[in-house]
Amino acid sequence: MSHKISFGTDGWRGIIAKDFTFDNVRLVARAVAAYINEEAIGERGIVIGRDNRFLAEEFAEAVAEEFNKQGIPVYMCCGATPTPVTAYAIKLHQAAGAVMLTASHNPPPYNGFKFIPETAGPALPHITKKIEENIAKLQAGEPCEGYSLIPAEGRYGALVAEEKPTTGCTMHSPFEEYIEHIATIIDLDTIRQAGLKIVIDPMFGAGIGYLEHILGNAGAELEVFHNHRDPLFGGTLPEPTGKSLEELKQRVTAGKAHLGLALDGDADRFGIIDANGEYITPNQFLPLLYYHLLTVKGWRGPVARTVATTHLLDRMAAKYNQPIYESPVGFKYIGQNLLEKDCILGGEESGGLSIKGHIPEKDGILAGLLAAEMVAQHGKSLTAILESIYQEFGRLFSERLDIHTTPQQKTAILEQLKDFSPTELGGQPVIDKITLDGVKLIVADGAWVLIRASGTEPLFRIYTEANSLEQKVRLQQDVKNKLDLN
């Protein structure tokens, strides 16, 4: 094969049978195995998880076989396993890392290959760069450090650690251990006393059974749907956004439930519907959670957010004299801050979060349980808690616009962005310009606009946060006019 395999913000993804073929998956597995062996940690083994997509089991078998051929033992997760649970299994086994086969919230024809290193958080760019270099060497037939072909033996063909079976693969379900760990983080007793009624939509994905088990055992009255395997995801995307959760909204309001909780295809992102049927955006939920951690749990510590995520977190951190760490888009940078900066919360506007005491990987199951804990402990809806936050810290209005261009337009606008430094925007002076990831302009009253280009499409994303709906529209239109993006 000749085309370049590259790792984006969360791994390599491709269309099944076109790009995501068995040959390519084996190639990437060999490149990851070479990286692990070069780091001299191969004897610790690798965890393999997968979601509910087409041919998931067969792809997982192929990956296991390639690792075993490089002398690396495998912990194969039984059945579909969420990304955060697969990551947690690294800690359970003190493994060298994990491979998660998932395309997350992408359309049904896609699958993906995500490498999670020994930290149990997303791989940082220096790791994925090394894997990409290994792929290129293997494609070209060049020597690749850490790679050597071991003659096949047994089921997978591997030399294995003594405590593992001679087939080279231990079938393992980290379900119970993950649930025991979650019980140390979530106040299940308070949930039990609150008598919550919750509707759950795992969107046919790998998260089926997790929220149901934990909340059911905590005494919540549950209604669950879309809780069987469907590689076509009911003909839609397994992405829990306001647009895709209409049925969950209807079931919550019709059943007079306290909450509706949804998970994406690999359960690392969340969707939350409040008792009134309102979709709670990640930019609303992250401040809710930080407020809860600060005021109810009494935690103190910094918060990490991406450059595209709400500054309401900044206002809270300022009041409690805590640092805030801004990172490029991509949870790998959030995970790094959770590990290195002792943050009590890290999150992004696209629906990923984790907290102190958990793994530095985004976890939709954790998010849903924290939502239930909040409703139980505060004794009121998330919307009502939000109103209290707005009264104390002010309300902000966030939105992302996706604007399609031609490839030629994209090139021209990218060139223009290099020197894009307007002195005013939306009728206010620009007081700061941040080029951490795209171009972010902050105006005098704290409102801001971020312009980011898609890495794969002729597309620009304009993120805006303002103090009123009117200001939000003014800022959006002004940026579009200045960059000729109308």
TrEMBL record:
Gene3D superfamilies: Alpha-D-Glucose-1,6-Bisphosphate, subunit A, domain 3 (3.40.120.10), Alpha-D-phosphohexomutase, C-terminal domain (3.30.310.50). The keyword Metal-binding applies. One of its GO terms (biological process) is purine ribonucleoside salvage. Its cofactor is Mg(2+). It catalyses: alpha-D-glucose 1-phosphate = alpha-D-glucose 6-phosphate. It comes from the Bacteria. SUPFAM superfamilies: Phosphoglucomutase, C-terminal domain (SSF55957), Phosphoglucomutase, first 3 domains (SSF53738). Belongs to the phosphohexose mutase family. Residues 436-481 form the Alpha-D-phosphohexomutase C-terminal domain. Residues 5-139, 176-277, 282-393 form the Alpha-D-phosphohexomutase alpha/beta/alpha domain. This is Phosphoglucomutase. GO terms for molecular function: magnesium ion binding; phosphoglucomutase activity; phosphopentomutase activity. Pathway: Glycolipid metabolism; diglucosyl-diacylglycerol biosynthesis; Lipid metabolism. It is an enzyme of class 5 (isomerase). Keywords: Isomerase, Magnesium, Metal-binding, Phosphoprotein. The lineage of its organism: Bacteria, Bacillati, Bacillota, Clostridia, Eubacteriales. Its EC number is 5.4.2.2. It comes from Desulforamulus reducens (strain ATCC BAA-1160 / DSM 100696 / MI-1).
